[in-house]
Automatic annotation (TrEMBL):
<protein>
    <submittedName>
        <fullName>Lysophospholipase L1-like esterase</fullName>
    </submittedName>
</protein>
<feature type="domain" description="SGNH hydrolase-type esterase">
    <location>
        <begin position="7"/>
        <end position="198"/>
    </location>
</feature>
<dbReference type="InterPro" id="IPR036514">
    <property type="entry name" value="SGNH_hydro_sf"/>
</dbReference>
<dbReference type="Pfam" id="PF13472">
    <property type="entry name" value="Lipase_GDSL_2"/>
</dbReference>
<dbReference type="InterPro" id="IPR013830">
    <property type="entry name" value="SGNH_hydro"/>
</dbReference>
<dbReference type="InterPro" id="IPR051532">
    <property type="entry name" value="Ester_Hydrolysis_Enzymes"/>
</dbReference>
């Protein structure tokens, strides 16, 4: 049986291409690049959904609350060696009225829910890695400001600091992509081809500690 890794995220895990408003193909998405690096021994499950939040219901669109979907999602893919969670960009939307600290609290709550499942190897808890997505560029407002609202860039810039603090308390692994992976220069809130490649490399290096041979 292949060693399974679930990548649970939003449009940047799904692979949204802001230039075409479509989806990047395999070989471009960071999840598929990660799969190439890991090799045939592993299976990457792409659980990306555009618009997904960590713990809040969106009044405008159905089914985007990651918290209510996470448990059945993980159990359906069991056994899982590792759950990689990258959320937070959509939580910055003005209509949710969340602070950066609130968003970090929600992502931490979601990661604890992942650990509380029995979706891991032999019914154990799966390993969890939380990624802070790259901050939204301040120019986003000129492109998608009507939809996103104000202050999204500032919230996303502060998010990694609070996430690191809260996840350390819970002993959950954390990867901060700030200053390491850029957003695109189209809508300033999605990865471009270069961003996907950089993210795949960072995640692979960070994941090595999770991927030791089972004893």
């Amino acid at each position: 049986m292949k060693r399974r890794i679930v990548c649970f995220g939003d449009s940047n895990t799904w692979g949204y291409d802001a230039k075409t408003m479509g989806r990047f193909p395999e070989g471009v998405r960071w999840t598929s690049l990660l799969a190439e690096r890991l090799g045939e021994e592993f299976q990457i499950v792409e659980e990306g959904l555009p618009g997904r939040t960590s713990v809040v219901d969106d009044p405008l669109f159905e089914g985007l609350n990651g918290y209510t979907y996470l448990h059945p999602c993980l159990m359906s893919h069991a056994p899982i060696e590792l759950v990689v969670i990258m959320l937070g960009t959509n939580d910055t939307k003005e209509r949710f009225n969340l602070t950066a600290y609130n968003i970090a609290q929600g992502i931490t709550r979601l990661s604890l829910k992942a650990k509380d499942t029995t979706a891991g190897i032999k019914g154990q808890s799966p390993n969890v890695l939380v990624i802070a997505p790259p901050p939204i560029g301040k120019e986003y407002y000129e492109v998608v400001g009507k939809s996103m609202g104000k202050e999204c860039d500032r919230k996303s810039e502060k998010l990694p600091e609070y996430l690191k603090e809260l996840l350390e308390i819970q002993n959950i692994e954390f990867l901060n992509t700030n200053r390491l992976v850029p957003m695109n220069t189209v809508d300033y809130m999605h990865l471009d081809e270069k961003g996907h490649k950089l993210l795949a490399s960072l995640v692979y290096e960070k994941m090595k500690s999770f991927l030791q041979e089972e004893k």
